[in-house]
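As the next step, I wrote out a protein sequence along with its fold in token form, included below for the reader:
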Amino acid sequence: MSSQFTLMREQRFRPFFFTQFLGAFNDNVFKTALITLVAFHAASLSNIDGGTLATVLPGLFILPFFLFSATAGQLADKFEKSLVIRYVKVFEIGIMLFASAGFFLHNIWLLAAALFMMGMHSTIFGPVKYSYLPQHLKENELIGGNGMLEMGTFVAILLGQVLGAWVAIQSQHEIITSLTILLIAVMGYATSRGVPNSPAAAPHLKINWNPITETVRSIQFIWQHQQIWLTIIAISWFWFFGATLLAQFPNFAKEVLYGDESIFILLLSIFSLGIGIGSLMCEKLSRGKVELGLVVFGAIGLTIFGIDLYFSSTSIHEHWNNKTYFDYFTFLSKHYDAEGHIFLDCWRLLADIALIGVFGGIYIVPLYTLIQTRSERSYQSRVIAANNIINALFMVVSAGFSILIFNQGYNIPQLFLAVALLNVLVMIYLCFRQPEYYKDFLVWVHTLKSS
């Protein structure tokens, strides 16, 4: 069996994997439950318009990444990591108690504060997440370990969103949601107890508590190390690409595919599972070493299937112009258009989304592994923290880019096409600045042909 799966039997990996999994799971159960409640019961929570709340709340979760990432990176470098992880899990239990009060009292301000604190929870855990693995895995295990972690994260996101939507629509949603998020938080703390000791990388570090100056210092540091800087830009571009797609999936399902909520869940499920599969494939494709050629390979797939997503979705929109809304079963079983012609574009579209996920997983795993293997060990967590700041910035810019495209009169499939084409320019820039990417890609293709 592949070594990435045998890691699940080892104490150095399994408790950490499940701690990360449960944290991402709880994040998404809580966020989705809150946003679902806002969508359907905004009047009982606040006199603020539901659409405004649905726009503002995700921003509250991202804001701590800008405010606290630099500090979180210092904490992860200065202190023993398993201790930091356990404190973060205790903090999560406190947040969920706070959120439960918000659900019972129907108080949007308590819930918004809890969402902000969950963003803090994820911000603090982020630098530990990727700097932990190099301390406990051999270099030839890092690709597999990162692949498992990415797979687990996206499966947790998917399951969390499905469960969050389900608990929010129950008649006794206050108690069901509260018990669910508290139970997951307690389970996360229980698994964190098994995370092995991870000595501090820079125990004598003097923490700079000013987030602005420390953020500037972190970005200046990675700018001086251009290979790391370009890697972070490449990772952040993936989050731009992914955030653009995911943010539009609900309206894409409704306005383009004429589907109900089940179509949105179907798209999200296929994309998330695709990312998981692509992440797991990396170890085999790279033979256990950092293979930058996979980044170019992944980017090629993102562009090809991103472009085809435009054509397949446009075709569906044109054929199903009667605006009859379908559920996922009708969507999957409909093979004929109004004229009786064979119509399989729905399957083509699902394949496009699945393969965008697969190639996204192939693209992202080598980049995270590159940061882990080529950044200074004593500064590793702070590099990850700087990465998280720039990731968050790109995600915010992706929202602005989408608004700009729509203001020009373009539709959602055309937005997807624009991002797929922009991906080509980003890869040309990356290969121009760092020729190692395309050189490794050519070597990897040659090796693949001769094997």
Observations:
- The chain has a mean pLDDT of 85.
- Residues 1-192 form a domain with the Growth Hormone; Chain: A; fold (CATH 1.20.1250.20).
- The chain has 16 helices and no strands.
